[in-house]
Amino acid sequence: MLQSSQSVVLHIVEDMDVVRVRAHVRSLASDMGFSLGDQTRLATAVSELSRNVLQYAGKGQCEIFCMALPSRSGLRLVFEDHGPGIADIDKAMQDGYSTSGGLGAGLPGTRRLVDEFSIESRPGLTRITIAMLRRHA
Ligand SMILES: Nc1ncnc2c1ncn2[C@@H]1O[C@H](COP(=O)(O)OP(=O)(O)O)[C@@H](O)[C@H]1O
Ligand SMILES: [Mg+2]
Asked: How far apart are the CA of 70 and the centre of ligand 2, in A?
C-alpha cells in the first residue's frame, strides 16, 4: 500500500468536473514521471469513476493522495459520494452489468487499469479507492 503524504480534494458536481479532475490527475501523473500509457490508464479510470459519481449519486468528490519517495512513488485516488450506494458490489464488478442501461464496463474496466482497487459501499456512502504505482525504469 502507498503511504499518503499530502492530499487535495476535487469536487464533482457537474459534467465539466469530470474533465477537470481527469486533467488534474493526468498532469500530476505526468509531473511524477508516469509513462504516457499509465497517464492514459489513470485518466480513463478517473473518467469512469467520476461519471459514476455524477450519474448515480448526483455529486461527490475525488481526493488525491500523492506519494513521492526516491524508492517508490504513486497516486492514490479516493472517490466518495453520499448517494444510494451500490446494491450488489459483486454484480457491479461483472462485465456488462448495469442498472442504468449503460455498458457496465466502468468498474470492471477500471479495476483492470490500476494497481489497487477497492470498494466500500452502503446507502449514503460509496467510497472507491484506486492506486497506481510509478514503475521505475
Ligand atoms: N457511485 C455509485 N453509486 C451507486 N451505484 C453505483 C456507483 N457506481 C457504480 N454503481 C453501480 O454499479 C453499476 C456498474 O457500474 P459501471 O461498471 O460503471 O457500469 P455503468 O455505469 O455503465 O452502468 C452501475 O450500473 C450502478 O448500478
Ligand atoms: Mg459507469
From this structure: 35
